[in-house]
Amino acid sequence: MTSLTLESTGDYRFHVRVEGDAPHEFVTGEGPPLGLPGALEPQELLGAAIGTCLASSLLFCAQKAHVTIQSLSARIDVETVRNAKGRLRIGSIDVALDAGVPEEQGERFARCREIFEDYCTVTESIRAGIPVKVEFASRPTEVR
Question: Which of the following CATH numbers is that of domain 41-131: 3.90.180.10, 3.10.20.90, 3.30.200.20, 3.30.300.20?
Protein backbone atom coordinates (compact mmCIF):
# COMPACT_ATOMS: atom_id res chain seq x y z
CA MET A 1 0.00 0.00 0.00
CA THR A 2 1.14 3.52 -0.72
CA SER A 3 0.18 6.13 1.87
CA LEU A 4 0.20 9.87 1.44
CA THR A 5 -0.70 12.74 3.74
CA LEU A 6 -2.00 16.04 2.48
CA GLU A 7 -2.20 19.34 4.38
CA SER A 8 -3.74 22.57 3.20
CA THR A 9 -1.34 25.51 3.07
CA GLY A 10 -3.90 28.06 1.80
CA ASP A 11 -4.79 29.39 -1.65
CA TYR A 12 -5.95 25.93 -2.79
CA ARG A 13 -2.44 24.52 -2.29
CA PHE A 14 -1.55 21.34 -0.45
CA HIS A 15 1.68 19.96 0.93
CA VAL A 16 1.85 16.25 0.10
CA ARG A 17 4.11 13.79 1.84
CA VAL A 18 4.56 10.29 0.47
CA GLU A 19 5.25 7.83 3.28
CA GLY A 20 7.32 4.67 3.08
CA ASP A 21 10.90 3.53 2.57
CA ALA A 22 11.84 6.59 0.53
CA PRO A 23 9.58 9.39 1.77
CA HIS A 24 9.34 12.51 -0.33
CA GLU A 25 7.27 15.66 -0.56
CA PHE A 26 5.74 17.93 -3.17
CA VAL A 27 3.10 20.64 -3.59
CA THR A 28 -0.21 20.25 -5.37
CA GLY A 29 -3.11 22.59 -5.84
CA GLU A 30 -5.62 24.21 -8.08
CA GLY A 31 -4.48 26.83 -10.55
CA PRO A 32 -6.33 29.99 -11.51
CA PRO A 33 -9.08 31.05 -11.19
CA LEU A 34 -9.30 29.30 -7.79
CA GLY A 35 -5.69 29.21 -6.72
CA LEU A 36 -2.26 30.38 -7.70
CA PRO A 37 -0.22 29.05 -10.63
CA GLY A 38 2.80 26.84 -10.09
CA ALA A 39 1.57 23.80 -8.17
CA LEU A 40 0.89 20.42 -9.74
CA GLU A 41 -2.83 20.27 -10.46
CA PRO A 42 -4.83 17.05 -9.92
CA GLN A 43 -5.38 16.40 -13.63
CA GLU A 44 -1.64 16.92 -14.23
CA LEU A 45 -0.82 14.39 -11.52
CA LEU A 46 -3.23 11.90 -13.06
CA GLY A 47 -1.71 12.39 -16.53
CA ALA A 48 1.80 12.05 -15.12
CA ALA A 49 0.82 8.88 -13.24
CA ILE A 50 -0.60 7.28 -16.37
CA GLY A 51 2.30 8.35 -18.58
CA THR A 52 4.93 7.24 -16.08
CA CYS A 53 3.25 3.88 -15.55
CA LEU A 54 2.90 3.21 -19.28
CA ALA A 55 6.49 4.24 -20.01
CA SER A 56 7.78 2.12 -17.11
CA SER A 57 5.75 -0.87 -18.28
CA LEU A 58 7.18 -0.49 -21.78
CA LEU A 59 10.73 -0.26 -20.41
CA PHE A 60 10.16 -3.34 -18.25
CA CYS A 61 8.83 -5.35 -21.19
CA ALA A 62 11.71 -4.22 -23.40
CA GLN A 63 14.23 -5.22 -20.76
CA LYS A 64 12.68 -8.70 -20.47
CA ALA A 65 12.69 -9.04 -24.29
CA HIS A 66 16.33 -7.88 -24.50
CA VAL A 67 15.33 -4.80 -26.49
CA THR A 68 17.38 -1.63 -26.13
CA ILE A 69 15.26 1.47 -25.86
CA GLN A 70 17.63 4.28 -26.78
CA SER A 71 15.13 7.07 -26.12
CA LEU A 72 11.65 7.24 -24.69
CA SER A 73 9.24 10.11 -24.29
CA ALA A 74 5.52 10.49 -23.88
CA ARG A 75 2.95 13.19 -24.46
CA ILE A 76 -0.13 12.97 -22.31
CA ASP A 77 -3.20 15.08 -23.07
CA VAL A 78 -5.80 15.21 -20.31
CA GLU A 79 -9.10 16.66 -21.51
CA THR A 80 -11.49 18.14 -19.00
CA VAL A 81 -15.17 18.37 -19.90
CA ARG A 82 -18.37 19.33 -18.13
CA ASN A 83 -20.86 16.64 -17.21
CA ALA A 84 -24.64 17.01 -17.41
CA LYS A 85 -24.63 18.92 -14.09
CA GLY A 86 -21.95 21.30 -15.37
CA ARG A 87 -19.23 19.83 -13.16
CA LEU A 88 -15.71 19.45 -14.51
CA ARG A 89 -14.62 15.87 -15.12
CA ILE A 90 -11.79 14.10 -16.92
CA GLY A 91 -13.29 13.36 -20.34
CA SER A 92 -10.38 11.52 -21.88
CA ILE A 93 -6.66 10.91 -21.59
CA ASP A 94 -4.57 10.43 -24.71
CA VAL A 95 -1.02 9.13 -24.48
CA ALA A 96 1.49 9.19 -27.34
CA LEU A 97 4.69 7.23 -26.68
CA ASP A 98 7.81 7.71 -28.78
CA ALA A 99 10.49 5.04 -28.39
CA GLY A 100 13.79 4.83 -30.21
CA VAL A 101 14.63 1.17 -30.82
CA PRO A 102 17.37 -0.32 -33.04
CA GLU A 103 15.87 -1.58 -36.30
CA GLU A 104 17.20 -5.10 -35.82
CA GLN A 105 15.23 -5.39 -32.53
CA GLY A 106 11.96 -4.28 -34.10
CA GLU A 107 10.34 -7.70 -34.12
CA ARG A 108 10.96 -8.30 -30.41
CA PHE A 109 9.82 -4.75 -29.67
CA ALA A 110 6.58 -5.32 -31.61
CA ARG A 111 5.62 -7.97 -29.06
CA CYS A 112 6.19 -5.49 -26.23
CA ARG A 113 3.97 -2.98 -27.98
CA GLU A 114 1.20 -5.60 -28.00
CA ILE A 115 1.33 -6.47 -24.29
CA PHE A 116 2.94 -3.69 -22.22
CA GLU A 117 -0.31 -1.88 -21.37
CA ASP A 118 -1.60 -4.96 -19.58
CA TYR A 119 1.20 -4.55 -17.03
CA CYS A 120 0.50 -0.89 -16.29
CA THR A 121 -1.04 -0.85 -12.82
CA VAL A 122 -2.38 2.72 -12.96
CA THR A 123 -3.78 2.78 -16.50
CA GLU A 124 -5.50 -0.58 -16.29
CA SER A 125 -6.93 0.25 -12.86
CA ILE A 126 -8.39 3.52 -14.10
CA ARG A 127 -9.80 1.84 -17.19
CA ALA A 128 -11.53 -0.73 -15.02
CA GLY A 129 -12.85 1.88 -12.59
CA ILE A 130 -11.35 2.19 -9.14
CA PRO A 131 -13.63 2.17 -6.10
CA VAL A 132 -12.92 5.21 -3.95
CA LYS A 133 -14.06 5.20 -0.35
CA VAL A 134 -14.31 8.63 1.27
CA GLU A 135 -14.57 9.13 5.00
CA PHE A 136 -15.02 12.50 6.63
CA ALA A 137 -13.83 13.58 10.06
CA SER A 138 -14.61 17.00 11.40
CA ARG A 139 -13.31 18.61 14.54
CA PRO A 140 -14.12 21.89 16.19
CA THR A 141 -11.54 24.63 15.74
CA GLU A 142 -11.06 27.89 17.53
CA VAL A 143 -12.33 31.01 15.82
CA ARG A 144 -9.49 33.45 15.29
Answer: 3.30.300.20
